[in-house]
Design brief:
90 residues, mainly alpha, 72% helix, 0% strand
């Protein structure tokens, strides 16, 4: 059975990631146009910090939601090997 709240959350997370990607893309054009002998302006550096942080958060929110959806459906590989203690086989 579908979960309307999950679908709404997925749509919102996707919009967030796409929105921050658009912001980075616009800034990327300015960065690509820089002369390598110049410094990045303070304004561009501030924009880079703000947009890269926002994009990282948006992407992680989307990733976390997708992982939750996959877990609910039993589609994630078992992580038993990752939780095995070091030296347990000895």
């Amino acid at each position: 059975m579908t979960n309307p709240n999950e679908i709404d959350a997925l749509k919102a997370a996707m919009r967030g990631a796409q929105g921050t990607a658009k912001g980075l893309s616009a800034l990327g054009d300015r960065i690509e146009a820089l002369d390598q002998r110049t410094e990045v302006t303070d304004a561009d550096l501030d924009d880079l910090a703000r947009l890269s942080a926002a994009h990282a958060l948006a992407a992680e929110a989307l990733r976390g939601l997708v992982r939750t959806m996959m877990e609910r459906r039993g589609k994630l590989p078992q992580e038993a090997a990752a939780t095995q203690s070091v030296g347990e086989d000895e």
